[in-house]
Amino acid sequence: MAKILSGRECAATMREEIRVQVEELKNKHNLTPGLAVVLVGDDPASVSYVKGKEKACEKAGIMSREYKFDADYKEDALLKLIDELNHDNKIHGILVQLPLPKHFNEEKVLFAIDPEKDVDGFHPVNLGKMMIGEPRFLPATPHGIQQLLIRNDIEIAGKHVVIVGRSNIVGKPLAMILVQKKPGANATVSMCHTGTKNMPDMTRQADILVVAAGRPHTVKASMVKDGVVVVDVGVNRIEDKTKKKGFRLIGDVEFDEVSAKASAITPVPGGVGPMTITMLLHNTLQAAKNHAGIP
């Protein structure tokens, strides 16, 4: 059986490291990292994710300030709030939970965040810095994937990484991170998407396969080679009447059959998900240090 790459275990270790650094920042510099989280609407996944961020911040000693609004909240009001948070010295990181309701221009909202406080790493200034290998903040999910591989002693340098999915949140930034000539990277990276012909021919070449397609069971055992390392980013809700909630979560990979061929694989849930929030805490800590001029 494949080694299970537990995001929960890796995240727990990293969150304790972050907690210690936050405590040190408070004691030595009288500085408490502050994160503002903005939620518009009541999307169940977003609400659950925001609650997870709240708890994680509290345990790490990070001050979390929440702003929750109904779905009919106005874009102008949100932009005004972001401007106020940009000038608030107690807030070092600003996160606007996506997706926003349809009447918002998400690009306009994200671009309004001060790049120094863009702990999601989505501002074009931060994406540009990542592109040239001099990042201020790395996007949380791709950075979490990288850390999960590194901390499980999985060699990335020289390997062929195939990414299924080209989103601005996972696929594209992950490709840019892993192709850099740096420790924990230096891979050959290929990207598959809906326009890729004969995708199985590509995925079978992967030493490390990252699947972020957003569709359940996109990758089956016939699409991977023996010994592949598989990172499943997908989180899909399917009906399951045997569960108390009436559903269960599955990934984009046929876990049972693929794990029989893989050397290592992430579970869903409990794989990439916990790492995303962890890297958000990491970025908020880094933003506070940057603000205070602390190395």
Protein architecture, described:
With 295 residues, the protein is α/β, with parallel strands linked by helices. The protein has two domains: 30-114, Rossmann fold; 140-273, NAD(P)-binding Rossmann-like Domain (Rossmann fold, 3-Layer(aba) Sandwich), CATH 3.40.50. The chain has helices at 7-29, 44-60, 75-86, 106-111, 124-131, 140-150, 171-179, 199-203, 255-259, 272-292; strands spanning 3-4, 34-40, 63-69, 93-96, 160-164, 188-192, 208-211, 229-232, 236-239, 247-250, 264-265. The strands form three sheets. Strands 1-11-8-7-5-6 form a six-stranded parallel sheet. α6 (140-150) packs across α10 (272-292). The protein is globular and about 55 Å long. The N and C termini lie far apart (43 Å). 41% of the residues are buried.
